[in-house]
C-alpha cells in the first residue's frame, strides 16, 4: 500500500510561501549556469568555470541522506509511542536502496520523501540552471520510487510514503494504524 503521495485537498497551484511552482522562467538574474552549452556570459548570467562546478558538486555531496529533520521528528514520535524499528535499513533484494524506517517483523517500510528530491506536486521546484538535466534526474528519482514500491509489494512488504511537509504526528498516526492492521 502506498500512502501520503499527495496531501489531502492538494490541488494545482497550492504552494507554501517559501516554494516556487515547477516551471518558472529561466535562470535568475546573476545566477551561474552549469550547462556546458551556456558557458559564455548571457545577459544577467555569470560565466561558470570548472572551479564553480566543483564547488556545487561538493555542496550537493554533503546533502543529508538520512537523519533529516522530518525523519527525526517521525522517529522520535514513534519511539515515544513505544515502537522499535530499523533506521536506514537495506531493502530486501534491492542493492543500494534503503528504507528510512523499517519494521522488519511487520514487513512495513516507511519512506519520508523530500519535496525537492522526489518532485512533490505542492512544493517541488526545479533549479533555474541545467533545467533539462534536473527534470530528467527528478523524473528518474520518482520512477525509482515507484519501482521500489512495486518490488516490495510483490515480495509481501507494505510501503508507506509521506512527504517531508506532512505533520509528523499525522504521519506517526498513519504508521501506527498500518502496523496495528498488519500485526493486529
What does the secondary structure layout of this molecule look like, with pairings?
Layout: H1 50-61, H2 69-80, E1 86-90, E2 98-103, E3 108-113, H3 131-154, E4 158-163, H4 168-183
Parallel strand pairs: 3-4
Antiparallel strand pairs: 1-2, 2-3
Helix pairs in contact: 2-4
Pfam family, one: Vsr
Keywords: DNA damage, DNA repair, Endonuclease, Hydrolase, Nuclease
GO molecular function, one term: hydrolase activity
Profile the largest sheet. Answer: 4 strands, mixed
Number of DSSP E strands: 4
Number of helices, where a helix is a run of at least 4 consecutive DSSP H or I residues: 4
Sketch the topology as an H/E string, one letter per element.
Answer: HHEEEHEH
Q: Could you name the CATH topology of the domain at 64-183?
A: Endonuclease, Chain A
CATH architecture grouping of the domain at 64-183: 3-Layer(aba) Sandwich
Instruction: Using the CA coordinates, give the radius of gyration.
Output: 19 Å
The global form is globular
Taken as a percent bin, the fraction of beta residues is: 5-15%
* C-alpha termini separation: 17 Å
The CATH superfamily of the domain at 64-183 bears the name VSR Endonuclease
What's a quick, concise take on this entry?
Belongs to the Vsr family. With 184 residues, the protein is α+β, with helices and mostly antiparallel strands. The protein is 35% helix and 12% strand.
Task: List the main descriptive attributes of the protein structure presented here.
single chain, 184 residues, alpha+beta, Endonuclease, Chain A, four-stranded mixed β-sheet, 4 helices, globular, DNA_mismatch_endonuc_vsr, DNA damage, hydrolase activity, hydrolase, DNA repair
Amino acid at each position: 500500500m502506498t500512502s501520503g503521495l499527495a496531501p489531502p485537498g492538494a490541488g494545482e497551484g497550492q504552494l507554501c510561501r517559501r516554494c516556487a511552482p515547477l516551471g518558472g522562467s529561466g535562470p535568475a538574474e546573476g545566477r551561474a549556469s552549469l550547462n556546458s552549452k551556456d558557458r559564455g556570459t548571457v545577459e544577467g548570467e555569470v560565466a561558470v568555470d570548472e572551479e564553480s562546478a566543483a564547488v556545487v558538486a561538493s555542496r550537493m555531496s554533503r546533502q543529508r541522506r538520512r537523519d533529516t529533520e522530518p525523519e527525526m521528528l517521525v522517529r522520535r514520535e514513534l519511539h515515544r509511542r513505544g515502537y522499535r524499528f530499523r533506521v536506514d535499513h537495506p531493502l530486501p533484494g534491492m542493492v543500494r536502496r534503503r528504507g528510512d524506517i523499517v519494521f522488519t517483523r511487520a514487513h512495513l517500510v516507511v519512506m519520508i520523501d523530500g519535496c525537492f528530491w522526489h518532485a512533490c506536486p505542492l512544493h517541488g521546484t526545479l533549479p533555474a540552471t541545467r533545467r533539462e538535466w534536473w527534470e530528467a534526474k527528478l523524473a528518474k528519482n520518482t520512477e525509482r520510487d515507484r519501482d521500489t514500491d512495486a518490488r516490495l509489494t510483490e515480495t509481501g512488504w507494505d510501503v508507506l510514503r509521506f512527504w517531508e511537509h506532512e505533520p509528523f504526528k499525522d504521519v506517526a498516526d498513519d504508521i501506527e494504524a498500518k502496523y496495528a492492521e498488519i500485526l493486529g
